[in-house]
Amino acid sequence: MRCRDVQSKLDLSVRQQLTSVESVQMEAHLASCPACRKALAKLRRLEDLLVAAPVPPIPEGFAERVIVQVRAQQTAMALRKPDSRFPVWARLRSSTGIAAALAAGLLLGLFMGRDTWRSGAGGQAVAASQRTDLLAAAGLEPLIERGGDPLTQSYLSLTMAGDR
Question: CA-CA distance, 124 to 26, in Å (whole number)?
C-alpha cells in the first residue's frame, strides 16, 4: 500500500473496521513507514480523548425551545408569498429573453440552411459550385484531369453524397 491509501483508511483502522486483507496490508506498510505510524498514533490519541470526554448535560427546556423555534419558522414560511422572490415582471422578462433567443436561433438556422432543401437541377448546380469553390479554396486545382472528371471532385461528390 502507498501512504495515501493508508492515510485514507487510518480512521477505519482505529475503529477496527478494516477487512483482514486490508489490515495485513496496512500493518506491513506501517512497519516500514514512520510518517504513517505517527499519523495513526495521533488519530488514536484523538479517539481516546473523545471517548474519555464527559458528555455535556442538556440544558433544562432545550427540547421545548427547539420545537417552539421550528414552529415559528414553519409559520413564517407558510405566511410568506410563494413567489415573493420572483415577481411576475421578472419571470416575464426572463421568458421574453428566452423566447427571443429561440426565435433568433430559428431564423439563423433557416437562413443558413436555405439552399439545402432544394431538389432538382438547381440544387445540383449549387452543389457543383460548392465543390468547385472547395477545390479552389484548398488549392487542389492541379489535380483536375483534362477532359474528364477530376479525382478530387469525384472524392468530394462521394463524401458529400451523405449531406444531400
Answer: 73
- Which residues lie below 8 Å from residue 60, measured CB to CB, with a gap of 6+? none
Distances (CA, A) of 127 to 85, 92, 116, 156: 55, 45, 9, 10
pTM, entire model: 0.36
Per residue, the 3-state secondary structure of the chain, as one string, reads CCHHHHHHCHHHHHCCCCCHHHHHHHHHHHHHCHHHHHHHHHHHHHHHHHHHCCCCCCCCCHHHHHHHHHHHHHHHHHHCCCCCCCCHHHHHHHHHHHHHHHHHHHHHHHHHCCCCCCCCHHHHHHHHHHHHHHHHHHCCHHHCCCCCCCHHHHHHHHHCHHHC
Q: At what angle do helices 20-32 and 34-52 cross, to 10 degrees?
A: 120
C-alpha cell at 15: 475503529
For 112-147, how does the pLDDT look when each residue is reduced to its tens digit (9 = 90+)? 766 665 554 444 555 555 555 555 666 655 555 555
